[in-house]
Amino acid sequence: MSAPQSSKTTSPAPPPRRWPNILSRTLWGIFVLGAGTFLLYPILVSMNFLFLFGKSPSLEELENPRVEQPSEVYTADGVHIGRYFRENRSPVPLSKMSPWLIKALVATEDVRYQDHSGIDPKAIARAVLGAATGGSGGGGSTITQQLAKNLYKTRRKENTGLLGHLPLVGTIISKTKEWLTAVELERRYTKDEILALYFNTVEYGSQAYGIKVAAKTFYSTSPDSLTIEQAATLVGMLNNPTAYNPKFHPAASRKRRDLVLTRMGQAGVLTPEQVKTEQATPIVLQYQVEKHVDGPETYFRGAVSQFVNEWCKKNGYDMYRDGLRIYTTIDSRMQGYAEEAVQKKMKTLQRTFDNFWRNRGKDPWVDEDGNEIPNFIETQMKRTEQYKELAARYQGRPDLLDSALHRKRPMKVFTWKGDGDTTLVMSPLDSLAYYKHFLHAGMMTMDPFTGQIKAWVGGLNYRFFQYDHVRQGKRQAGSTFKPFVYLTALDNGYSPCDRIRDERVTINYVENGQPMEWKPDNVTREYTGMNMTLRYAMARSVNSVTAQLTEKVGWENVAKYANKVGIRSKLLPVPSIGLGSGGDVSVYEMVNAYSTFVNQGFRPEPMLVTRIEDRNGNVIVQFDPQQKRVIPAETAWLMTYMLRGGMEEPGGTSQALWDYELWRKNNQIGGKTGTTSNYSDGWYMGVTKDLVTGVWVGGEDRSIHFLNSQQGEGGRTALPIFGTYMEKLYQDPELDIRMGPFPQPTVKISKKYVCVTAEPRRRREAETVDTIVVDNLLENLNNGTVPIPDSL
Which of 89-93, 352-356, 363-367, 544-548 has the lowest mean pLDDT? Predict the structure, then answer.
């Protein structure tokens, strides 16, 4: 029998409680997402996910950190002559640093340095707590983190991702990179290696990067010789190199130094007595700042830097960062003799020039009639950058502009007296007029067989005159261009013994479709009627013969041959090209061209750098001599023989060289003087069996010059520099430059060339005046203002 069923009905079960479950799952999901993001965040930062975080140091950069290091420059004979750098830094090992540096740094910046692995949690917590409470909890960065920031520039704009531009987010990302990089550095380097990297990386102010340069800049000593007080001062500067610079903020620097000393006492590396003693010591500096281009200020350094910079750009190097070792072709001894010769002769010549114009009561800027050019300085001033700046500043206020141009103030200017500079009270107009009075010079010597440039003097003083008269400056070459006419002739059937009569001629030609005529004058306006050999005519620089020969060979061909042998400037094919009026050329080009004659017809490519090494001394690139045959060897030898005529032919224009000690051991020198119209430019091109040298002398403007040949021709302005220079070279037993004759020809000479007008004499003959046009010469002779040369 079944049990009776209850009459009550069962109520339905309550619905499940869903909201708490959803909430818990949501919270769990957020937690998981947050935890995942936290764990993934460092990976995303290091890989620069979607370019959000910016670049981090690569594995290669971590293992081979590229500390910016100056590039060193050396001469061919191994003399260190300077450095190129953005950050003046010379790394040294930790063993070459004072132990007080290490103790001061650790005590001040990272007292638990030896105990952490790149990140100090206690320091971070202290810094965060200090920031939260409005106090100063100290910095949270370890030495390793600071190294990461300095070494890899983690906060540079190029290393910032899309999120890095958000203020707070950017700071967090930068800190994260520094933490990650610090941990990686600790994994790869020892504690001592990190300290060494740190000291060689950080900035100390006054353009000093790295402890070696800092010690030299502030104390004129080496890192291993730093005292406790000096070490504390330098370490104190690291917090803010500008605010704590002892040179410019001595009080703030001393306060910071004393704090470092206190920290050293707290860390137990100094006793209380030592702390007190060192804090009582005043800061005494021996301050000397090195420039970004350290070393002697010379013109060739600019040419070297230009060449190396171009090479670096093409090959992925940085001359100011990569610590390259650059070996130049310059010989320090020859360079010294060249600079000495220019200084000695230009100082004397300037005195003559000043007296010349003082006696005439004029300034040296004159027109073709010898009259002083009115308002010359005012006109020249308007072409200067200084005038343009002042005109822009005082636009619409000519009274203020005029006042600024006449306002006097003390200026340090170049002078030939004393140490090379002096302070004068001058206005901008006074200063310009002062400098316009100077004659300038450019000089270069090259080995014609290798193309190696051995000496390069671009001017009087690079500190005051940056314009380089070797390569940058270009002027008419005067009679030093005549050899290219004779070159064209010799290479097209003529011989040195062929003859042309010295007589007045008229050259007919067509210019722009119009018939023209040119009647070239000899310097003396006289013609001997002599049927001269080509060698004699070139030696005496006879204009009438050169003009006739130019017409015979074609002035277009003269331009082509000049370009062949080394003249790169544009030349106008005009009848007077042989007298130097076809275009402006540089000393650099002329030396290159004359070298082709000595180098048996091969045009050498001028070289300033022989090799470049990396910071470890490994050769990156070697520059070998390059040359190209452009004229036959016979023609080249004959041209050298022709150039010897300036000394060997009677009345040759190089006769003044007999006054120098150059004539032992059957020594032979070839050369050519040159002077342009109105004596604006004086040239001398000299060739020996070993070297080719070019010298130019002239004013900054063509209107600044002498008025007569006795002072102004190339034989009296440029040639003495060459003679003085060569004397010094021959007298130096350490130089492999010996007196002696030119070598005999290496090929058969088929053309007649032995036809000297008279036997060579070992004494000075009266040389011919050598200029293109002398408009005032006869008038000056007639009124007795100019002594009559022996050759007239």
Answer: 89-93
Name the residue among 316, 306, 305, 293 with its Cα closest to residue 620.
Answer: 316
For residue range 372-390, what is the model confidence (pLDDT) as tens digits? 999 999 999 999 989 998 9
What's the order of all strands across the beta sheet hosting 670-675?
Answer: 453-457, 439-446, 692-699, 681-687, 670-675
Q: What is the DSSP string of 374-399?
A: TTHHHHHHTTSHHHHHHHHHTTT-HH
pLDDT band for position 786 (50/70/90)?
very low
| Angle at CA of residue 668, ends 666 and 671, nearest 5° | 165
* pLDDT one-digit tens code per residue, 496-510: 999 999 999 999 998
Question: Smallest Cα–Cα separation from 538: which of 588, 485, 599?
Answer: 485
DSSP state of 665: T
Give the separation between CA 627 and CA 207, rounded to whole angstroms.
Answer: 43
Distances in Å between the alpha carbon of 376 and those of 207, 382, 388, 639, 695?
42, 10, 17, 43, 28
For residue 92, is pLDDT > 80?
A: yes
* Assigned token pair, 637: 């030898």
Would you give the end-to-end CA distance of the chain in angstroms?
Answer: 167
CB 465 within 8 A of CB 570: no
Q: Indicate the burial class of 157 (C-beta count within 10 angstroms; 0-12, 13-18, 19 or more).
A: exposed
* Predicted pLDDT at 22: 66
Closest CA to 142 of 112, 172, 176, 170: 112
Predicted local distance difference test score (pLDDT) of residue 459:
95
* Tokens 């619905």 sit on residue: 15
- Per the rule left: phi > 0, alpha: psi between -120 and 50, beta: everything else, 205 is left
Mean pLDDT of the chain: 85
Cite the beta strand spans of 148-213 per DSSP E: 203-205, 208-209
Share of the chain above pLDDT 70, in %: 79
Eight-state DSSP code of residue 239: T
Element (H, E) at 671: strand 670-675
CA 324 to each of CA 14, 187, 319, 614, 731: distance values in angstroms, whole numbers, following the listed order: 85, 29, 7, 5, 35
Average pLDDT rounded to a whole number, residues 57-85: 77
What residue type is assigned to position 362 of the chain? K
For the entire predicted model, the pTM comes to 0.74
CA–CA separation, 329 and 346 (whole Å)? 26
Distance (Å, whole) CA 324 – CA 71: 4
Residue with tokens 């070019």: 694
**DSSP notation for 97-148:** S-HHHHHHHHHHH-TTTTTSSS--HHHHHHHHHHHHTTS-------HHHHHH
Type and span of the H or E element at 682: strand 681-687
Alpha-carbon distances, residue 642 vs 24, 352, 541, 646, 688 (angstroms) = 106, 33, 12, 8, 13
* Distance from the Cα of residue 683 to its chain's centroid: 25
As a dihedral over the C-alpha atoms of residue 164, residue 170, residue 176, residue 177, rounded to 10 degrees, the angle is 40
Q: What is the pLDDT of residue 185?
A: 77
Q: Render pLDDT for 312-335 as a digit per residue (tens, 0 to 9).
A: 989 988 888 888 999 999 999 999
SS3 content of the chain, % helix, strand, coil (to 5): 45, 15, 40
Q: Do the bridges between strand 499-501 and strand 531-533 make them parallel or antiparallel, or are there none, so unpaired?
A: antiparallel
The encoded tokens of residue 586 equal 């540089």
517 or 784, which is more confident? 517
Question: Under a CB-based contact definition with an 8 Å cutoff, are residues 448 and 691 in contact?
Answer: yes
Per-residue pLDDT band at 789 (split at 50, 70, 90) = very low
In tens, the pLDDT along 249-276 reads 999 999 999 999 999 999 999 999 999 9
Of 341-345, 711-715, 762-766, the range with the highest mean pLDDT is 341-345
